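note to self: dont lose this again. the chain is below, predicted strucutre after it. 150 aa total, dont forget to put it in the shared folder this time
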Amino acid sequence: MPLVEDLERLEQLRIKGILTEDEFESAKRRLLNPDLADDKTTRDRHAAAVNRLEQDWREQQRTFMVQERSSQRLPSSLAGWTILLFSVVAGIGVTFLAFAFSLPHLLLLSALLIVGGVGRGISEIGKAQEYVDARRRFEATRASAWRSKR
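---
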């Protein structure tokens, strides 16, 4: 009988120390219940696929990082709007000073503040939206992968 021979061979491998107790028990369960082996193999493959998916997301997430002076952070719409509004308010303030004190060279500074800040703010808002979209795609893919497991 092949099943008995397979069990005896597993026992010999365990006695010789080739198989650990856990490996022996696992192999014995698979021999006695082949359906269990298929389920476990499927679960292992599925878990590996989900792990790869999450690892790919972590790598993709790094591409969205915004470099600041001494650190990195994910982009934020709030930061983008803050930059945008601050630059406009500061530009208006500098423009007011330029006219109040007859300093026309401050008009150039004002224009640079507004244009630079608005550009940087819009860029931050766009990058934040790209990140949100990528995150949603990842979560939908992960949810789909978990549903397909069942």
